[in-house]
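Researcher: We're teaching a course module on how sequence relates to structure. For the next exercise, students receive a sequence and then see the predicted structure as tokens, so they can try to spot secondary structure elements on their own. Here is the exercise chain.
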Amino acid sequence: MGCSNCSSGGGLPGGCKNNGACGVSGCNKLEVFDWLAGMELPEGQKQYDVVEVRFKNTRKAFFRCPSGMEFFVGDVVAVEASPGIDIGVVSVLGELVKIQMKKKAVKDNLELRKIIRKASVEDISTWQEARKREDEVMYKSRGLAEGLGLVMKISDVEFQGDGAKATFYYTAEDRVDFRELIRSFAENFRVRIEMKQIGSRQEAQRLGGIGSCGRELCCSTWLTDFRSVSTSAARYQQLALNPQKLAGQCGKLKCCLNYELDSYMEAVKAFPGPNTKLHTEKGMAHLFKTDIFKRKLWFFYEDGVAGSNPVILDLESVDEILEMNKAGKKPKDLRDFEEVEEVVEQQFYANVVGQDSLTRFDESRKKKKRKNKSKGGNRPNKGDGKAKGPEAKKERPAQKKQDRPSGPKPRSEDSAKSQNPRPPRPKGNNNRRKNPGNRNKPEDS
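Model: And here is the predicted structure for the students to work with:
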């Protein structure tokens, strides 16, 4: 459960006490927002006695409530099954169930199965143990099918709430004879086996995933019916017929191609057909491209006509030229109707927010070139063409001696102190330093 209000303690769900109006999404897969929650029924009208119960993934069904029992969204209930009982979660109740039944063409008659009771702790523990077996059974069943050489893909396994029955969902391109496979499943799993073949879209709906838009798949979150999608939907929206971009997780065309198709078909009615031709004194021009949002059309002149660059015209200009052609008139050139776009100078503002530009490292940094100082060899110099070598080194000191001024080099006070840190000693007898033992001896007269 996705809401903390739905637990009753001990880790067991106790049902949604707010009738789905707590505002927390993600409680289950294919959840239904109860927009009638909080509305009181008219006097004398009882609550509708049919509820919608959700099972694993996309399987839902309608069940009749026993008299005298009240249910909430999120309650775990035990319902009738064939054979045994099944465990599910109440997803919709009240007047909204009538709308769901009408949408799915389910009649309210005696054929509706009943809710037996609210699930007990033993029922929930048995249900959870059966759910834990599903992944292990699915992987093992794939190995058994591959061992028998059957071309099929088992995508999902669903156990009944009491663990007495298992439903295997598979996809296959051709008809599959799985009679031997059912015998092998019954011997290994010791349950009643039911096989159901589903399509690629239903497989993606059950497994779920992330689409190219970055969100969860529509078929696994809110889309309940699958309409046929054709390549004409991509042509109306002027999309490239690239199967890698137009295909979804299921390998078929994306369902979202139909979402805006009606708007495109309505907008295309105002534009001329794809084979439109404009007659001018310069020659004939063919329609090359149409931009519905900008209401512009691209035209190319025929081969051999000067000015082969495309001419961009707005829809009003094209309609005007077509009216002229119907009246037997021809404009001189299409470029007379072409709009000249005004170039707006980009204004640079100061960085008052303190954000760094993303292109600050794009400018190339010029490195300072270092001069190659060769230590040896007669490498020519680019400037004066003289050779650099031992001979050139000998000439340099001689030139410096001539230019050097005569006399001692003046020294600063700091340099003098650094070179002579201690004052000079007076000249005298240095025997005391060599023989420190003679310091106290009197000198011989």
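Model: If you want an answer key for the exercise: The first strand starts at residue 50 and ends at 54. The radius of gyration is 45 Å.
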